[in-house]
Amino acid sequence: MKTTLLATVLLLAPAGIAAAADTGLPVSATYNWSGGYIGAQAGYGWGDARVGQTFAPGSFDGYGWGYGSLSGGFGGLFAGYMKQFDSGLVLGIEGDYSFANLKDTTGYQALGVDDPAFGGVLELDAIGSVRLRAGYAMDRWLPFVTGGLAVARYKHTTVDLPSGAAYADAEDTVTGYTLGAGAEYAVTDNWVVRGEYRFADFGRHASIRHSTFDGAALNADAIELKTRDIRLGIAYKF
After folding, report:
1. How high is the mean pLDDT of the chain?
2. β pairing state of 217-237 and 35-53
3. Would you say residue 3 has pLDDT above 50?
4. How far is residue 46 CA from its own chain's centroid?
5. Domains of the chain, with CATH numbers?
6. Contacts of 109 (CB under 8 A, 6+ apart)
7. Pick the residue with more confidence: 11 or 187?
């Protein structure tokens, strides 16, 4: 997937240059990356998670739901500001927010034994971040690394099997850290395309389930979550 992403960026760049030449859009000889920008992005994410019960010390690993195939698409907006220095170093700050549709289903296990009466559904419906960025300007190319705060909103539903009827759920927003790397290409003086890989680790957070029938709080759980994604974006630089 990484190869496909980079190939897409490489294909978009010359096409954009040709389009700029045909339409008369400005294309400067030496590009400067300083300035603010706003853009749109879309991508595909995957990850793994565990929702474990915390009714006793050590119960998290032995009792709960393991999600190893969490995956799906996402799309949203990003904005930021960058400053290019004489050395070619480019530093900046950026924020992004995306609506997501990452999902996985699994069964409940107690000490490694499947319980045929219980299942679970984990969904991520939003992801975002606020990050610092550092890159090195190579005229219109900008390879970069990035890192900062990551945010994700999830819903975990406990279901009865085999009917699949939900009897409890938990919804919350969790925070962690994210690291990534990618490259940008300035197609014109204002339009920039990018490809990026991102990893996020949200650690472990309390996850309080509530009954779907009367809203009563049930035994406290906890969630551990890690995600990875590949994303493409296009931005307008001011």
Report:
1. 89
2. antiparallel
3. no
4. 9
5. 2-26+43-237 (2.40.160)
6. 63, 64, 65, 66, 115
7. 187
The sign one gets for the Cα dihedral 65, 69, 72, 77 is positive
The residue written with tokens 């705060």 in the block is: 149
Between CA 108 and CA 115 the distance in angstroms is 6
Q: What is the dihedral of CA 201, 203, 208, 213, to 10 degrees?
A: 30
What's the burial of 67, exposed, middle or buried (CB within 10 Å: 0-12/13-18/19+)? buried
With a CB cutoff of 8 Å and minimum separation 6, the contacts of 15 are none
Tokens matching residue 13: 């760049």
Amino acid, res. 208: I
Distance CA 180, CA 118 (A): 37
Q: Is the pLDDT of residue 66 over 90?
A: yes
What is the chain written as a DSSP string? -HHHHHHHHHHHHHHHHHHHHHHT----SS----EEEEEEEEEEEEEEEEEEE-SSTTHHHHEEEEEEEEEEEEEEEEEEEEEE-TTSEEEEEEEEEEEEEEEEEEEEEETTEEEEEEEEEEEEEEEEEEEEEEEE-BTTEEEEEEEEEEEEEEEEEEEETTT--EEEEEEEEEEEEEEEEEEEEESSSSEEEEEEEEEEEEEEEEEEEEETTT--EEEEEEEEEEEEEEEEEEEEE-
Residue whose pair of structure tokens reads 């991520």 in the numeric block: 124
**Which tokens in the block code for residue 57?**
């010390």
**Tokens representing residue 166 in the block:** 């939900």
* Greater model confidence, 163 or 178: 178
